[in-house]
Amino acid sequence: MFNILKWCSILLLTLNVTGQKNMPHLTKGLWGGNLQLNNNTILPFNFSIDKKNKAYTFTIYNGEEKITLIQDKGTKDSLYLSFPLFNSSLVLKINNANSISGYWLNLNKGANYKVPCELIPFSKIPHKTLIEPKPFSGKWEATFEPKTTDSYKAIGVFEQEHDNLFGTFLTETGDYRYLSGKVNGDDLLLSCFDGTHAFLFTGKMKNDSIYGSFYSGKHWETTWEATRNENFQLTNADSLTFLIDTTKFHFELKDLQGDVFSFPNDQFNGKITIIQIMGTWCPNCMDETRYFKELKNKYHNQGLEIISIGYEVGDTFEEHAAKISSLQKRLDLDFKFLVGGAANKDLASAQFKMLSRIISFPTAIFIGRDGKIKKIHTGFSGPGTGEYYLNYTKETELLIESLIKEY
Predict the structure, then answer these.
(1) Is 229 left (phi over 0), alpha (psi -120 to 50) or beta?
(2) What percent of the chain has pLDDT over 70?
(3) What is the tens place of the pLDDT at every residue in 188-205?
(4) Among 25, 117, 251, 381, fewest CB within 10 Å belongs to which?
(5) 130-163: per-residue pLDDT in tens?
(6) Among 220, 229, 185, which residue's Cα sits nearest to residue 201?
(7) Domains in the chain, ordered, with CATH?
């Protein structure tokens, strides 16, 4: 299933690296990174250091995804590497050419959310004896937090190349993005580190089932289990949020300049409009935003507009607007941006009372030229989900093309 990812566009964020005049020599090539989530649990990730024109570049790999970090500041023996879209950084000390240590700072979780981090070149990592790997490829019906009132379903989709494992989990409100890792005997390990999330999945196969643990950063841990089931489906994401008030869809919020924006209005009358409810801190939202940029470029001349409403970390309108404005500039987005307020689904639900409830960031509302809601899609299955992403993009473009033909 995931062979198709090899043909998908790879996220590569190339950014200027500064402040390297007196940096000591570092071994170039692939490195292994470790995040110490707790005393007994390490999340591994893939890292590379390259050098061109006397300047180093630093890149994190999550399967098919590449994230090149920004070197903001530092001294001759330190590194301060920021993630390009999220309010987080790696704060590191160069011990020598083959050793870097420090911590991951995630300001979205607070000023003191720090996770210890170590980096070492792959060539220096001790070789481990490999047990012949069991086969994990295929589609799995997964349950997280099983046997509790908080349990929820997911689809695990995995592709295995000997002891290398790739894939993701899809839930009803989004996916766990690009996961990669290893199989050793009947044990699996999958991880993702994208700057806002640090996901680690461990599991053991018993007969034709998997039993494991799921860690999100240092603050969350639960269990999961899965059985093979090629026919399992989640609830349709177009049915989770729905219209409960049949009067005309409307809302009123502030734009980035603080001016009140009301919808509908003359500017959007007769337009096909996507209302995106999102947050700049949310990787699934960023995947959706990149796709919506493609849609806007493809269909804008035929009447498509996008209004993106940000629900953000921070206490003030100014903080929220600054985060949204930064995203707009970084991704060069020609959307109409509005400020929803704090990153809170109850707040979003209160602002859209004509809908049943906002249960996920992102949520996309598709409106026809007649001003009526045509579809509400909860969550987003990004490019890390392979055929699920391709099916969604195909369905979405067929919907937009049908709405174009309505007039």
Answers:
(1) beta
(2) 94
(3) 999 999 999 999 999 999
(4) 25
(5) 899 999 999 999 999 999 999 999 999 999 999 9
(6) 220
(7) 2-124 (2.40.128.120), 138-228 (2.40.128.120), 251-404 (3.40.30.10)
Specify the residue for token string 């959007």: 268
SS (H, E, C) the chain: CHHHHHHCCCCCCCCCCCCCCCCCCCCCEEEEEEEEEECCEEEEEEEEEEEECCEEEEEEEECCEEEECEEEECCCCEEEEECCCCCEEEEEEEEECCEEEEEEEEHHHCCCCEEEEEEEEHHHCCCCCCCCCCCCCEEEEEEECCCCCCCEEEEEEEEEECCEEEEEEEECCEECCCEEEEEECCEEEEEEECCCCEEEEEEEEECCEEEEEEEECCCEEEEEEEEECCCCCCCCCCCCCCECCCCCCCEEEEECCCCEEEECCCCCCCCEEEEEEECCCCHHHHHHHHHHHHHHHHHHHHCEEEEEEEEECCCCHHHHHHHHHHHHHHCCCCCEEEEEEECCHHHHHHHCCCECCCCCCCEEEEECCCCCEEEEEECCCCHHHCHHHHHHHHHHHHHHHHHHCCC
> Confidence band (pLDDT; 50, 70, 90) for 33?
very high
Single pTM value for the model? 0.91
